[in-house]
Amino acid sequence: MRMTDIIGGKRDGGELTPEEIRFFVRGYTDNAIPDYQASALLMAIYLRGMSDSETANLTAAMAESGQQLDTSALKATGKPTMDKHSTGGVGDKTSLVVVSMLAAAGILVCKMSGRGLGHTGGTLDKLEAIPGFRIGMTPEEMLAQVSSRGACLAGQTGDLAPADKKLYALRDATATVGSLPLIISSILSKKLAGGAESFLFDVKVGGGALMETEAEARQLARGLAEGAAANHRRASVLLTDMTQPLGYAIGNALEIREAVHTLSPANVQASSFSHSSNNARFRELCITLAAAGIELAGIATGAESVEKANEALETGAAYRAFERIVEAQGGDISVLRHPERLAQAPVVHTITARTEGYIAAFDTRELGNIVVALGGGRATKEDTIDPSVGLLIGSGIGAYCAADSPLAEIHARTEQEATAAAVRVRAAIHLSSTPVPAPPLVIDRISAP
């Protein structure tokens, strides 16, 4: 079997056999297949797509490419086990908050996260903005921490779905991030390897997400729900809005500050933007997702699940759960109590509205790309991220802005980078002279048939 024949077959619209898929996954995992050939096949898949059976075979091959977590000891405690995943978006730091809320509610969460993909941020990049935070954990360490602390937030190890870990980084550098079969197989292979009983999925929809149209997002949601059910896992999939940045912060240290502010709003004033409508929207999403997880775990249903999610935030239980996670993974918890100690960019520029009006729309993808250009993301998989840079966004769609009120704040390394970003940021925020309705936060909830 030759890799060139596999690439050519998919390039010409053929269907890959299970043997060809296993050959590719095994060969790339073992470094027998070079990046340039893997990149060619990824692009062929991106352009030609994959059938349901191809996607299922790719998912299985990736999940089986390494060790799978044995969660039997966790399940023996009688507590539900769950994994949570977001397809990612601009300003999406929900995992930091929601995993903490689920842990506070008594759900055991072993969360394996990834790095940024294109214009979307990555949970691991955000966590590494916390000094000392260790994302590299062995499977045994993950299980031990979940047992003792209720949750972990770690990167994929070389032993768990190693094929996905390699392909995940390569997709970011080859413009193949948006392929639906690759997204489904990537997400589900990690979840299956993680061994949880149930999966909570947040599928983002809009210009700031990987899935820009509702039709694409629904297809992905159905694929995730059906794939989970086929592997005897319970799943809940929410379609949520990403036509605007999620929360007010975009950029790694800035997003940690907003996450901490959301977990402990009475104690932490993260910035002058902390009480914007954007943070209220982010907080609402966290409560909605946590409530869906609580219901999925069988702890409560309906309004009671929302009450329990609210309780985790209001009592500080979720904040304490996050602090325990950070402490267990070597992070400096003093920066959680004093977020101003996190990395701060030397140059801060504020952009104000030139006229009064209503926020009508964002070019959310462009805002994410601006943060990448500032140094807060990766153009290639080898790039180093500056955790201090990013953007703060003043208001969300539908909000009224007076003339000279702050629209955004740029955090940059140099005056030159801040000036260049300012032109792009202003062009990415659109105002209207007439009121504009805010888009719904949750579009739909999908489950397996």
Explain what the structure shows.
With 449 residues, this protein is an alpha/beta fold. The protein has three domains: 47 residues, Transferase, Pyrimidine Nucleoside Phosphorylase, Chain A, domain 3 (Up-down Bundle); 268 residues, Nucleoside phosphorylase/phosphoribosyltransferase catalytic domain (Pyrimidine Nucleoside Phosphorylase, Chain A, domain 2), CATH 3.40.1030; 92 residues, Aldehyde Oxidoreductase, domain 3, CATH 3.90.1170.30. Helices cover 47% and strands 15% of the residues. It has 18 helices and 13 strands. Strands 3-2-1-4-5-13 form a six-stranded mixed β-sheet, with helices on both faces. 56% of the residues are buried. The model has no long low-confidence stretch (mean pLDDT 91).
The poorly predicted ranges are none
Task: Please count the beta strands (DSSP E, at least 2 residues each).
Answer: 13
Enumerate how many helices there are, as a single number: 18
Secondary structural class: alpha/beta
What percent of residues are in strands? 15-25%
Give the CATH H-level superfamily of the largest domain. Nucleoside phosphorylase/phosphoribosyltransferase catalytic domain
Q: How many structurally independent domains?
A: 3
- Specify the helix fraction band: 40-55%
Instruction: Record the strand order, biggest sheet.
Output: 3-2-1-4-5-13
**N- to C-terminal distance:** 38 Å
Largest sheet, in brief, is: 6 strands, mixed
Oligomer type: single chain
What integer is the average pLDDT?
Answer: 91
CATH architecture tag of the largest domain: 3-Layer(aba) Sandwich
CATH class of the largest domain: Alpha Beta
Query: At the third CATH level, what is the topology name of the largest domain?
Result: Pyrimidine Nucleoside Phosphorylase, Chain A, domain 2
Using only C-alpha atoms, the radius of gyration works out to 21 Å
**Overall geometric form:** globular
